[in-house]
Amino acid sequence: MPEQNKCDQHVLRLTRRKALKGLAAGLSVLALPSHQASASVWESFFQSHFRELSKQELQQTLARLEKKYSAQFGQKVTVKATPAIEGVLFGYGLDLSRCIGCRRCAQACVKENNQSRDPEVQWIRVVRMDKEKGIDFSRAEHYYNPDQVPEDGHFYMPIACQQCERPPCTKVCPVKATWKENDGIVVVDYNWCIGCRYCMAACPYGARHFNWRKSQLPPEELNPDTHYLGNRPRPVGVVEKCTFCIQRTREQPGRYPACEEACPVGARKFGNLLDPKSEMRYLIENKRVFILKEDLNTQPKFFYFYAT
Amino acid sequence: MKNIWSFFKGTLVLVGRGSKAYYLWALFLLVLMTIGSLAYVYQLENGLGVTAMRDQVSWGFYISNFTFLVGVAAAAVLLVIPAYVYHWKPIKEIAVLGELLAISAICMCLLFVTVDIGRPDRFWHLIPAIGILNFPQSLLAWDVVVLNLYLVLNLVIAVYILYNLYYQREPNKSFTTPLLLLSIPAAISIHTVTAFLYNGLGARPFWNSSILAPRFLASAFCAGPAFMILVFLLVRRYTKFRIQDAAIHKIAELIAYAMFINLFLLGAEVFKEYYTDTVHLAPMQYLFQGLHGHSALVPWIWTALLFNVTAFLIFLIPETRKNHVTLVIGCLLMFVGVYIEKGMGLVIPGFVPDVLHEIYEYSPTGIELLVTVGIWATGLFIFTMLLRVAIPILNGDFHVADDGVNSYIGDQLFLVHQKTDDVEPPLTTNDH
């Protein structure tokens, strides 16, 4: 970004923030009698875009959310905003010859990422393909339900956000509520999204999910370790998606995404694409990997391969 | 400033007066608006889950209506071009009614978008300077800009002309003409941008076809003007306002050409998909034939095609075009036909099958229908009120009184059957 542009944005940001604060203050005076609760309602209503929050405002926002969630779920909930680690670009690998279609990844994802249980939102979709036909979505079965997997004559393909290098979903957002972070993770600011669902129309992988109803999440099933851009509880009427478990993978020492850990056959791989010694780089260099819908030029960082 | 206030006061008095038919119509619309609002409150409290939309089909009936109505709004330009580019008098007299229709249609568009978004409370995020409008990257941001510009443009033109006529002044041409000429590309742009909104998505092959924007424009010049003709026939029968046959027949003729282009472009798309027969054929198969036993849209699209072709023939043949019984039938068929084709027929197959080829059959819930009816009633209410003010002004029945302050209202009744209707002024073809 040119320097001048950056500078202009900064000026704009300051004035906007000031204007909003003034407005918020003015309106909160109107909202008499001013309870604590109504003050926090105003604060959240007038909260700026995540990327425009100053350090101090970010801390205040995180504290406000922690307080809110802790009260809501009756336990200590932390909300982090750990930034991307310098020199890291996350990539994912999936070995189709190993996957047995058990959907443990999808379930582990729901638990880790605090998705609504009713209606249940799942970020990972596993589809069943015919071995005879190869990868052919028009013949895929989304709701296979046998007594035992794997089934003869079939293989399975888990699909989640492909964390595109050129994401079509972020381009279309009318309010910049979703963007690609420096470590390649495509995130959503749940407090800024207006719920127009244009990104869902733009995503070629069905990776985006909408909170059609108020999220139902029993307190005992809550994962209290949350990230602002990841698995914190979501409000109704906004879009959510896989974040490569941002609350785990950005920590130092980091942890693998929940789906990777849950896989019983080791079909899932994860690592830093910029590290020449990482497993991901080994796979890309030594296995014949492919990406989904290559012709759309979305450049996914989610690589499929057959190891055997 | 004082003048504006007394004009405004006068219009308020005016819209409160009218015949029994006018009161009944307004009351009827207000009841529907109330029902629609209640349904919307229910949706707000329970989330968009009360609609039939889901992750697979994430836009539905609301956005279908929105898309259709953008076309209706753009169609005012079909009156503006003959009136102000070719200075054809019979249409010049009525062009302002087209602008009023555009205003009403845009209001409906904005309402349909509002009820469709999950967080209407965050609407301000779209406002540049206090929110963040992702312009020029997002086509939706473009749409926000051009729709609002078009709304303002039409409001300014129509209100300025009517305001001056009320004060019995000739509207200043050097002010109106540039704006009117600007409204032509503006009308085309709202429709093009709305088409591009769908068109630019590589994920959705049904929309990702370069013929989409031309198709959008062609169909816009069908449904909107067809509705205008119906309004003209009603206005002429129930008010003192005179509209020449020549104007109506000319519009009908233009509709015939537009419908021909629309059908031709549709045929081109159908040919391309069916003949190449790739995996991208699936949405079109779903629409016209049904896919894997799912065929909710099939009867609708064939009805629409039948209506459109019939209407095309009615408008094409001079005898049926000039016979007002067949003309009314043609207008109704065309309006409904395009409503289906360009509403649900365009939006839903974009999502069925979805990007992973899952088939979720969408059909709107009762709440969606009620909210939609409420918005249509709101649009018709706005249009009725605008006509209530505009028509007496154009007739010279509503203007400033001799004292220069109060208003003179000659037309207390508005909607009353006009006996003189059958005596048409002689048809003149050489008044260019």
Describe the structure.
The complex is a heterodimer of chains A (308) and B (432). By secondary structure, chain A is α/β, with parallel strands linked by helices. Helices cover 31% and strands 14% of the residues of chain A. Chain A contains nine helices and eleven strands. In chain A, the strands form five sheets. In chain A, strands 10-2-11 form a three-stranded mixed beta sheet. Chain A has a two-stranded parallel sheet with strand order 1-8. In chain A, strands 3-4 form a two-stranded antiparallel ribbon. In chain A, strand 5 and strand 6 form a beta hairpin. Chain A is globular, with a radius of gyration of 21 Å. The model of chain A has no long low-confidence stretch (mean pLDDT 91). Chain B is mainly α and 432 residues long. Chain B has a single domain (2-403), classed as Up-down Bundle (Formate dehydrogenase/DMSO reductase fold), CATH 1.20.1630.10. Chain B is globular. Chains A and B meet through helix 1, helix 5, helix 6 and strand 7 of A and helix 7 of B.
| SSE series of chain A | HHHEEHEEHEEHEEEHHEHE
Largest sheet report of chain A? 3 strands, mixed
**CATH architecture descriptor name of the largest domain in chain A:** 2-Layer Sandwich
- The poorly predicted ranges of chain B are 425-432
Order of helices and strands of chain B: HHHHHHHHHHHHHHHHEE
Strand order of the largest sheet of chain A: 10-2-11
First-last Cα distance of chain A? 45 Å
**Silhouette of chain A:** globular
The total tally of domains of chain B equals 1
CATH level-3 fold name of the largest domain in chain A: Alpha-Beta Plaits
Report the C-alpha radius of gyration of chain A, rounded: 21 Å
Number of strands of chain B: 2
Q: Hey, roughly how much beta strand do the residues of chain B contain?
A: under 5%
What is the CATH domain class of the largest domain in chain A?
Answer: Alpha Beta
Largest interface: A-B, 50 and 51 residues
What's the overall geometry of chain B?
A: globular
* CATH topology grouping of chain B: Formate dehydrogenase/DMSO reductase fold
What is the structural class of chain B?
mainly alpha
Quaternary status: heterodimer
CATH class of chain B: Mainly Alpha
Q: Sketch the major β-sheet of chain B.
A: 2 strands, antiparallel
